């Protein structure tokens, strides 16, 4: 499937998230912008909604660690299986947030 450049850039970042770690929509947008693209947290969310099934979608959470709406239980199960720590119903972002090295 041929993807728009923006979607390809977002999905490439998501594919780089290691098991047991997560990134927020905003952090992914930051990486895409640093690579010369144009992105916002909202546009990352749109890409994930349309094409996220192609990658480890459950490793993408919002800025406070909430898993994707409508997929909370499945995402939590997949993240827990990878050892991602939670604080209540949210990912413990201090422990699990990841950002690629420069």
Automatic annotation (TrEMBL):
<dbReference type="InterPro" id="IPR014048">
    <property type="entry name" value="MethylDNA_cys_MeTrfase_DNA-bd"/>
</dbReference>
<dbReference type="InterPro" id="IPR036388">
    <property type="entry name" value="WH-like_DNA-bd_sf"/>
</dbReference>
<dbReference type="Pfam" id="PF01035">
    <property type="entry name" value="DNA_binding_1"/>
</dbReference>
<dbReference type="InterPro" id="IPR036217">
    <property type="entry name" value="MethylDNA_cys_MeTrfase_DNAb"/>
</dbReference>
<dbReference type="GO" id="GO:0003824">
    <property type="term" value="F:catalytic activity"/>
</dbReference>
<dbReference type="InterPro" id="IPR052520">
    <property type="entry name" value="ATL_DNA_repair"/>
</dbReference>
<feature type="domain" description="Methylated-DNA-[protein]-cysteine S-methyltransferase DNA binding">
    <location>
        <begin position="8"/>
        <end position="84"/>
    </location>
</feature>
<keyword id="KW-0227">DNA damage</keyword>
<dbReference type="GO" id="GO:0006281">
    <property type="term" value="P:DNA repair"/>
</dbReference>
<protein>
    <recommendedName>
        <fullName>Methylated-DNA-[protein]-cysteine S-methyltransferase DNA binding domain-containing protein</fullName>
    </recommendedName>
</protein>
